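Lab meeting, item 3. Inverse folding demo.
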């Protein structure tokens, strides 16, 4: 997430000072380009590995600070949430056995963090979105205690002017709002870096944009969020919405989200991207500036360009330009942010190899792809791949339109192979990693497909929480074998650890598909809803989804004995008969506490509220069904 020593944009004077430094950094960057001060003649690669931490019940474990203290290694750093971590690989020269060396590094640091997590009662998961994650895990109490994260949250929320809205549709539909940027913590990625020389930046950046779609289609590993089947790579849509600071306007004013694919091909240099992002996106954070870039240049030192890097860290292009300094020399990198974490280190390096190879192959085959392909087609390809994975229809050079799987096998893998071999990579490495891509695509077994196949194989057995825990547990166990995802067998329900792990909290067993009514509707409607849906309670909510009452079967029976049709002038409104004084629980309430409440008050139903809004219900019928399953399990034992 970049620099930690930051302050939220507050006083007008402070922000003006920061912007002055930012503009000076841009001028210095321009002078560095003119004077040819950037490193060239060498290409390096690198990566950032993000991951989840889970507990023994396969739920998110907020132990990142403790794990960092245990691992005690500068390669590791925090992420937004206390259940996420990141580690950075050392840069490698692009050539020879760099790919297998990258995999070895991932495995080495993964072993370190696994050991540290286990010492703190946790485990590590590499996955784009953690299946067992719940919305309740995204409260601010789970934000990493760092000034940067709280400042960023406050600044973005203030600029947005209210809660964040999320809408994604796949097989299922997700529509919710949240009060902070913590939804961004649902996403973990494997971000790869490609160092480029300034004079080739535009052509390579355009190539990176053009080939993003087939890479996403082959690498998809994020099909589920909160148990809902959404996009093949749900991270793409979710990340854009999780930090979207745009406000709705009464007119059709064009606004660019802070997370974007971009708007056009790059014409000449990285300077275009920096200038556009400064023009379009307001500064969110500021920091102390101790380095004048022009003084540094006069002294023969590479300037830190701290203001430029800080602003750049709050604009999230899927292919982002990065400025860095290594061994005293400034350089430019393209950071690919589209690749998900997991399913295994070998899968991740295969995805990276596919991207590195395609970028190199496109540069060799077409020079500047912008002369052979419309930018709008590259953008449309990207969205189609994120939504549909290998089933996406992609358009390539020459107007060819075909399924992603077909294009990957007959066009993109050969192009990537050519790009890697002509770049001097070891042929055995090329065969190994592109072979993983080929087998994955031939079998149709991406990480996303494995998740959906496993879910279908469970056939709605157990609760949704049990199925998500089983997916998480199976992911961990299969990752530890090191075998790529296309060889994995489906997850089994039993892998989740059994009922004890999945009935701890109300949110794990509550019903969220609710039949409700409004207090002004007629009582007759309640009677029919009970009959049609075979239920004994109907909850009453207002237009803002706030619970205002409940009508039970017993109330209707008393009503039948009290009123006669001829006594009523019109349909009796629900408001006149509903029970208003209700006892409710929250999703985080323990299941045992809910059962005690129901038993003590002789309730057969408990509404579940979050911030006053109705989100679910637990009933004695559910608990009887659970009890029946447990009894059957114990008798079999």
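The presenter then showed the designed sequence:
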């Amino acid at each position: 997430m970049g620099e930690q020593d930051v302050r939220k944009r507050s006083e007008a004077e402070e922000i003006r000072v920061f912007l002055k430094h930012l503009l000076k950094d841009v001028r210095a960057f321009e002078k560095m380009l003119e004077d040819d001060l950037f490193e060239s003649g060498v290409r390096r690669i690198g990566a950032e590995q993000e991951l989840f931490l889970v507990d023994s019940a396969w739920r998110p474990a907020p132990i990142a600070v403790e794990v960092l203290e245990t691992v005690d290694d500068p390669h590791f750093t925090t992420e937004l949430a206390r259940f996420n971590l990141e580690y950075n690989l050392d840069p490698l020269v692009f050539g020879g056995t760099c790919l297998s060396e990258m995999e070895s590094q991932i495995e080495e640091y993964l072993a370190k963090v696994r050991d540290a997590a286990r010492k703190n009662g946790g485990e590590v998961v590499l996955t784009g979105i953690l299946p067992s994650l719940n919305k309740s895990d995204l409260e601010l109490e789970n934000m990493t205690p760092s000034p940067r994260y709280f400042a960023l949250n406050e600044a973005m929320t203030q600029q947005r002017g209210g809660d964040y809205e999320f809408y994604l549709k796949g097989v299922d539909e997700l529509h919710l709002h949240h009060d902070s940027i913590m939804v961004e913590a649902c996403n973990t990625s494997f971000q790869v870096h490609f160092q480029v020389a300034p004079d080739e930046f535009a052509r390579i950046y355009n190539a990176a944009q053009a080939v993003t779609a087939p890479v996403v289609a082959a690498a998809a590993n994020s099909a589920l969020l909160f148990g809902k089947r959404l996009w093949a790579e749900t991270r793409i849509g979710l990340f854009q919405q999780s930090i979207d600071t745009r406000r709705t306007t009464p007119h059709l004013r064009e606004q660019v989200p802070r997370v974007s694919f971009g708007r056009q091909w790059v014409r000449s240099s990285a300077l275009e991207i920096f200038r556009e992002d400064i023009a379009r996106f307001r500064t969110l954070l500021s920091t102390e500036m101790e380095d004048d870039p022009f003084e540094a240049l006069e002294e023969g030192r590479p300037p830190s360009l701290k203001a430029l890097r800080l602003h750049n860290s709050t604009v999230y292009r899927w292919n982002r330009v990065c400025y860095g300094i290594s061994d005293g020399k400034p350089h430019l990198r393209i950071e690919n942010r589209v690749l998900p974490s997991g399913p295994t280190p070998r899968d991740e390096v295969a995805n990276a190899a596919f991207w590195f190879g395609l970028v190199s192959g496109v540069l060799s085959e077409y020079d500047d792809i912008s002369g052979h392909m419309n930018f709008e087609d590259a953008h449309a390809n990207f969205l189609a791949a994120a939504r549909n994975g290998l089933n996406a229809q992609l358009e390539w050079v020459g107007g060819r339109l075909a399924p992603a799987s077909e294009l990957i096998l007959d066009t993109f893998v050969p192009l990537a192979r050519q790009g890697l071999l002509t770049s001097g990579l070891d042929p055995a490495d090329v065969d190994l990693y592109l072979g993983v891509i080929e087998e994955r695509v031939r079998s149709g077994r991406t990480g996303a497909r494995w998740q959906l196949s496993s879910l279908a194989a469970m056939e709605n057995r157990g609760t949704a929480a049990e199925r998500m825990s089983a997916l998480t547990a199976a992911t961990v166990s299969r990752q530890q074998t090191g075998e790529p995802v296309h060889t994995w067998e489906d997850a089994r329900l039993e892998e989740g650890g059994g009922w004890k792990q999945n009935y701890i909290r109300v949110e794990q067993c509550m019903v969220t598909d609710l039949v409700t009514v409004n207090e002004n509707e007629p009582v007759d409607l309640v009677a029919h809803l009970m009959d049609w849906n075979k239920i004994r309670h109907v909850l009453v909510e207002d237009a803002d989804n706030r619970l205002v009452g409940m009508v039970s079967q017993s109330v209707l029976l008393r009503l039948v004995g009290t009123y006669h049709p001829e006594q009523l002038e019109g349909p009796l409104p629900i408001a006149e008969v509903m029970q208003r004084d209700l006892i409710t629980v929250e999703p985080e309430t323990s299941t045992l506490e809910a059962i005690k409440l129901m038993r003590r008050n002789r309730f057969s139903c408990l509404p579940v509220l979050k911030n006053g809004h109705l989100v679910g219900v637990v009933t004695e019928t559910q608990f009887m069904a659970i009890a029946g399953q447990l009894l059957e399990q114990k008798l079999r034992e």
